[in-house]
Amino acid sequence: MWNSWILVAGLALLCTSSAMQVDYDANAMIIDGERKLIFSGAIHYPRSTPEMWPDLIKKAKDGGLNAIETYIFWNAHEPRPRQYNFSGNLDFIKFFKLVHEAGLYGILRIGPYVCAEWNYGGFPVWLHNIDGIELRTNNEIYKKEMQIFTTKIVEMCKEANLFAPQGGPIILSQIENEYGNIMDKYKEKGKEYVKWCAEMAVAQNVGVPWIMCQQGDAPQPMINTCNGFYCDQFKPNNQKSPKMFTENWTGWFKKWGQKDPYRTAEDLAYSVARFFQLGGVLINYYMYHGGTNFGRTSGGPYITTSYDYNAPLDEYGNLNQPKWGHLKQLHEALRVGEKFLTNGTSETKDSGDGIQLTTFTDGQTGERFCFLSNTNNNKDVNVDLKDDGMHFVPAWSVSILGACKKEIYNSAKVNTQTSVMVKKQIGDEDKSAQFNWTWTLEPMRDTLEGKGTFSANTLLEQKRASDDLSDYLWYMTSVDINGTSFNEGTIFANSSGQVVHAYVNGRLIGTKSGYSFQFRNPVSLVPGRNNITLLSVTVGLQNYGDHFDLGPEGVTGPVGLIDVGNKTIDLSSNAWNYKVGLNGEAKKLYDPNSPNLQLWRTSEELPIGRPMTWYKTAFKAPSGTDPVVLDLMGMGKGHAWINGNSIGRFWPSQIADNNGCTDECDYRGAYKEQKCLSNCGNPSQRWYHVPRSFITSGTNFLVLFEEIGGDPSEVSFQTVTTGSICANANEGSLLELSCHGGNVISKIEFASYGNPKGRCGSLTKGSCEAEGSLSALEKICVGKESCTVDVSEKTFGSADCGEDKKSLAVEALCENQMVYLRELKKKKNQS
Fold first, then answer.
1. Which of 67, 350, 579, 692 satisfies CB 3.0 to 4.6 Å to 40 for a cystine?
2. What is the average pLDDT score of the chain?
3. How many other C-beta atoms lie within 10 A of the C-beta of residue 428?
4. 3 state DSSP class of 559
5. 222 and 237: one domain?
6. Where do the DSSP E strands lie in 209-249?
7. Annotated catalytic residue: which of 78, 117, 178, 707?
8. 10 has a pLDDT exceeding 80
């Protein structure tokens, strides 16, 4: 059991009439005396909107979760020292209250370092700029700031009665995050820091257990936990601690210039089933809903604005099928055995060749519950369990056996639909006719002439110089050529990323991007003074690794000139002028209520391909309730706003290379982020989520800042909806088909009960089939938003397939209900 003195201390402070006691042992979380398994999912409140939260939470609960987890994002809440923001989509108190109202538990991961592919790992950059500070180590300045923020979050939760002993939803809290992965780099100071973190956390008296993920030496009473793609072999450092999988990565994040990662539903389910087979107590999906990196929140560098993460709920909040449904069925199967997994004893027998049978037995009744796994990555097997029957177990799969006899779930047998999501054009198909654009050039006369707001006789690191108030930092200097021309020279500048635009005497001479690079370009200078301006652009600050906070950003130098005689003029120690941000940002050109409306202009011919240009247009709200996306094909790189709300950075000119993608994805074998890639040869991100709450019923405004040159005439709004659904379901199962979002099943394109072949989009009949397959399915499903099909001869009639086990393959179209009813009425009138 968890150290009782800590629990008592917490309860003494927090106890209310509706208090829940949270405890644990090696086999269960124990909540008010009930032994439970925890199925949790990560939903980060700032990666969605408050209007989206209820729906996301409901879909998580419908998917079989009983808990929601989130990080707390320090830099979002405290952008300046002691200046806090907990409004809008940063209102984590409201978020947890909604979790509670839904009847779910909450898991609070304070960190306050979070990683999370979030800008600077969640640290506010002002922290980095405190003299004498060292982050994530035994440094008194850092520890003081960390404790102040941690205490503030805890006190806010207490005031809102969010901890379980107060009757709230939060049953677990986390301090630090994956520190064990890099702790050795901090040596003894790292060990001292971990010990301090534990003591500081316990002293908060929250009344619920504390966890430390990826921390093998976590001090007691911390529960150390596991993160990764697989955690079945993980063992806690205390035999009394429950086995927790705090981050099961449902996919992977994406960077600009990279392809789309994809993790199959079969492999994800396999990792979960194996975890519980070998004594797991808590699973948390990272992510259950990934969402969107609004504003400048994406880290990396180079993390895309989309944080879809191939999660069970996609970026827009739609069900990602079959992953959502396949996991839902897994959770249902595990709940059948919950009393065995949390109370009974277990025995695992290894039969060789990757076959393992784990039997959980109720000590009082003798009842059993079994997992039968095949960890071989290419060999299917038939396993003879004697009195418990013969069981077919595909390679890389786990079967869950009720009473150790009947298969109630197999991780490789997907009996849920695949939803094919499509994007539908809004309004006129001629994109150029949709919008009347106004535009203005970014005012740059001051910076091109070398006029800044502060100066130094050195090259300043960008985080220190800009305090991360903007992606943009101007470096300006001048050089005197002493009355002679400099026609065939070279300018060079070393940068630690991520983009540099170079101007000489007011003219753009070149651009380069990368993680760490040297900009190098031919240059011609004039006799006398020459102005050199370098615009350094960050694309998300580093968020992971030991001492990542010390990684330099911006123009790090040297910066210099090389003349035709190969003589170098070093400009690194020149007098440099600096300016943070764009003038357009300062003038709030992204805000339709900005007082600088006179700057916008119109012209018969829309300027395209111009760097450093702002574009603005008005638009009407798209009808319906389907999620809205902005298609920015044709644009280069920049930032987008809807009615003053940032929807994030865009960079559709970053194209993924043509190699490494495949139409077929073999789920078998250990997953890595480079497995099963897609989207080769296309923009890393073309579509950008526009939450419905950002759009009003009247006139709306879209503002784009284009940094490198693009064509806004190609821009359009689209909606995301279910275009078609398909499924393969085994005989004896119940198949649920649904179009969701107010759409109905308008047509059955294909249906065959027997031994159909192929996959979604290319289904064909096999050698045997029930003749009434199509008509039976049409009768059950057409015209409905969802339907449930009993996959059996009772539904479809006889199919003479010999000894082969029969299955159903189906493909159906989805259509807006109003459109479907209108077309149906039209057909009836015509007949």
1. 67
2. 94
3. 11
4. strand
5. yes
6. 210-213, 223-228, 243-249
7. 178
8. no
On whether both 240 and 108 belong to a single domain, the answer is: yes
Secondary structure string (H, E, C) spanning 367-411: CEEEEEEECCCCCCEEEECHHHCEEEECCCEEEEEECCCEEEEEC
- Are residues 159 and 273 part of one domain? yes
Q: Is pLDDT of 3 > 90?
A: no
Of residues 199, 357, 204, 202, the one with CA closest to residue 278: 357
* φ/ψ of residue 572, rounded to 5: -60, -35
SS3 label, residue 73:
coil
The whole-angstrom separation of Cα 81 and Cα 92 is 19
Judged against a pLDDT cut of 60, whether residue 18 lies above it is answered with yes
- What's the rounded Cα separation, in Å, for the pair 607 and 615? 10
Banded pLDDT at 760 (limits 50, 70, 90): confident
Q: Is the pLDDT of residue 483 over 70?
A: no
Give the pLDDT confidence score for residue 527 in this predicted structure.
87
CATH number at residue 23: 3.20.20.80
First-residue to last-residue Cα distance in the chain: 73
Count the helices and strands in the chain (H runs, E runs).
Answer: 16, 41
Residues 159 and 295 placed together within one structural domain of the fold: yes
3-state helix, strand, coil in the chain (%, to 5): 20, 35, 45
Q: Which tokens hold the place of 687?
A: 């579509």
Return the minimum-mean-pLDDT range out of 294-308, 446-460, 479-493, 610-624. Answer: 479-493
pLDDT score of 762: 87
Name the percent of the chain lying above pLDDT 70: 97
Strand partners, 489: 523
* Cβ atoms of residues 785 and 736 within 8 Å: no
Residue 215 sits in the same domain as residue 91: yes
Cis peptide before 444 (omega within 30 of 0): no
Contact by Cβ (8 Å): 285, 248: yes
Report whether the peptide linkage leading into residue 558 is cis, meaning its omega lies within 30 degrees of zero.
Answer: yes
Return the structure tokens found at 128.
């980095």
Q: Identify any residues that bridge with 807 across adjacent strands, giving them in sequence order.
A: 730, 754
- Residue 116: C-alpha distances to residues 65, 120, 203, 298 (Å): 21, 9, 26, 9
3-state secondary structure of 23: strand
Tokens of 647: 């929807």
Number of separate domains in the chain? 5
Known active-site residue 178? yes
- Does residue 157 fall inside a structural domain? yes
Q: Output the pLDDT for position 56.
A: 98
Residue 588: closest CA among 559, 616, 626: 616
pLDDT of residue 431: 55
Annotated catalytic, 736? no
| Rounded Cα–Cα distance for residues 490 and 472 (Å) | 24
383 falls within a domain: yes
> Domain range spanning residue 822?
731-830
Q: Which of 670, 685, 719 corresponds to the end of one domain?
A: 719
- So what's the pLDDT on residue 831? 66
- Judgement on whether residues 518 and 548 belong to the same structural domain of the protein: yes
Is the CB of residue 105 less than 8 Å from the CB of residue 169? yes
Same structural domain for residues 76 and 57?
Answer: yes
pLDDT-based confidence at residue 433 (cuts at 50, 70, 90): low
- In 3D space, the residue among 476, 479, 481 whose CA is nearest the CA of residue 501 turns out to be 476
CA dihedral 120→125→130→131, nearest 10 degrees, is 60
Which one is catalytic: 78, 134, 247, 707? Answer: 247
